[in-house]
Amino acid sequence: MNIQFRENQEAASPLTVKTAIADCDIHPARATRTELYPYLAKRWQHHLEIYGVHAYQGMMEGPPYPKAQPNASRRDAYPPEGGPQGSSLAFMQKQLLDPNNVQLGVLNPLNTGQGIRNHELSAALCSAINDWQIDKWTSKDKRLKASIVVGNEDGLSAAAEIRERAGDKNFVQVLLLSRNVEPLGQRRYWPIYQAAEEAGLPVGVHAFGFGGNPITPSGWPSYYIEEMVGHSQCQQSALASLVLEGVFERFPKLKMVMIEAGFGWAPSLAWRLDKAWQRLRSEVPHVKRPPSEYIREQVWWTTQPMEDPERREDLFDVIKWIGWDRLLFATDYPHWDYDEPSRVLPAGVSEANREAFYLGNAKKLYGIN
Amino acid sequence: MARHVIAPVDELPPGTRKFLEIDGRPIAIFNIKGEYFGLMNRCPHQGAALCEGPLIGLAQSSNPGEIEYTKLGEIIRCPWHGWEFDIRTGQSYCDPRRFRVKAYPAHVEPGASVVKGPYVAETIPVKVESDYVVVEL
After folding, report:
1. CB proximity B93 to A under 8 Å
2. What pLDDT score does B123 carry?
3. What is the 3-state secondary structure (H, E, C) of A293-342?
4. Which of B12, B40, B80 to mutate to probe the A interface, most A CBs <10 Å?
5. Domain map of chain B by residue range?
6. Averaged over B53-62, what is the pLDDT?
7. Do B82 and A68 touch (CB under 8 A)?
8. Which residue, of A158, A365, B22, B115, is most buried by count of CB atoms within 10 Å of its CB?
9. pTM for this one?
10. What CA–CA distances, in Å, run from A62 to A55, A87, A159, B52?
11. CA distance A115 to chain B (A)
12. Strand blocks (E) in chain A
């Protein structure tokens, strides 16, 4: 009998899935504070050094709560060459892309240029992060695709950024966050949806954001765990706003992706919306059809953090309502609430649905052959 | 059950841990203040390398406003999802009914008894005059 010592502590995940997958929520990070500088005009580099960033919310560094793991990330995801988790392509390939057979990885950079009160700086930072995604990630690994990060509070400059990137195959969606200055359906954000629809790009709405509003509709909570569950409440109000302001009616080809906010709540929100709409329809005559119809037709959902009810039949009932063709598998790498591909889907799913869940839906939505 | 010699005692001082693979199973051995513990290095929740996480204490509350913090340094916290397990028993404090991590007894044996066997120690040269950390699985 041989005893083998573990040689490599940054070894890949112990379990892998054999079939190819898409990972629709990967968070690339900067290795250093100034990594974006080559993509920023000198004027903005100096501005950052002298004035810093003036955010909409009081917590200047972004996260309103301390996270449960360093950088809200897996402790085993530090690259061996240094830097925070998610900042090395080589290590991402070794730890995530290769062992899990990721065929399509969608990058969603957070803490970028969004939620900044200086809208010109916001636009410059977002454009820089978009160039950086090509340079550091998508041009070096063809499995990876970028999201167009836009200065969310200024619809016009955001739309300009989308139009500039339209047709560039490095990008597969536009990225927004769920917590903005106003609910996402409001008029100030319409230019974003218009430009995305014209470009044929889905708009992803990722949990988090820096609009300065509390995560809950009932005020600032005490605990990080309340923020974690609050993401789904926040996403619900964002989605209700999109429906009721008539965004889907106005932009009928617009596709939206709800990212990292769960999906178990989708049927109950739709039922409640439909019931209220039957009674209050005349208040919002621009919403011509029952709200659930827009949600079913124009919304997709990433899976992580995957709902995990005690009875798997409950999960299947929810998915059946949403549609097996609407779920997009995601890990959230390198964040700490990462979902391991081989562990999320219970037994009892047909081969066709499994393939759609893990890969097919994402390829179709994002136009990847 | 076989006994495996995993290291000379001075290679595993208090506060350190050693990772190894035995029979294809990833194992970690901890020295906590002179006590030795073996644990399967795979989280039963989603499969992370559990034993690479930090060792913390157990925060519990018997009544609102009263918090006891015990088992200092004896709770392993998963590097992914933060699930907590008792290093002595492998018990989960997050979902004890469904999950438990396999714990393996570990202790120190003098070289003289290790040489006699029945121990497995092909990769470690054993000297009679030294002491060794041994794990059973």
Report:
1. no
2. 64
3. HHHHHHEEEECCCCCCCCCHHHHHHHHHHHCCCCEECCCCCCECCCCCHH
4. B80
5. 3-136
6. 94
7. yes
8. A158
9. 0.89
10. 8, 18, 24, 28
11. 28
12. 3-5, 21-26, 102-107, 144-149, 171-179, 203-209, 256-259, 299-302, 327-328
Asked if B57 is an interface residue toward chain A (Cβ–Cβ < 8 A), one would say no
For the record, the structure tokens of A25 come out as 């929520």
Kindly list the strands in the beta sheet with B17-22, ordered across the sheet, starting from the edge strand earlier in the chain: A3-5, B17-22, B25-32, B35-40, B103-110, B131-136, B3-8, B119-120
Answer whether residue A44 is part of any domain. Answer: yes
Residue A362 belongs to a domain: yes
Structure token digits, residue A121: 């700086």
pLDDT confidence of residue B127:
76
Nearest one of A293, A206, A190, A204 to A251, comparing CA atoms: A190
**DSSP character at residue A73:** B
Residue A55: both structure tokens together: 């955010």
SS3 B132: strand
The dotted CATH code for B3-136 is 2.102.10.10
Q: Residue A4 domain-assigned? A: no
Reported confidence tier of residue A61, pLDDT bands at 50, 70, 90: low
- What digits encode the pLDDT tens for the residues A280-308? 999 999 999 999 999 999 999 999 999 98
Tell whether A5 is covered by a domain: no
**What's the full length of chain B, in residues?**
137
Domain count, chain A: 1
B96 CA to centre of own chain: 18
Phi, psi of A14 (to 5 degrees): -70, -25
Task: Give long-range contacts, CB 8 A cutoff, 24+ apart: B13-17.
Answer: B17/B51
Residue type, A261: A
**Spatial CA neighbour of A305 closest among A214, A228, A225, A220:** A228
- Minimal C-alpha gap between B116 and chain A (Å): 17
Residue from A202, A201, A191 nearest A155 by CA? A191
Would you call A152 helix, strand, or coil by DSSP? Answer: coil
The confidence score (pLDDT) of residue A8 equals 44
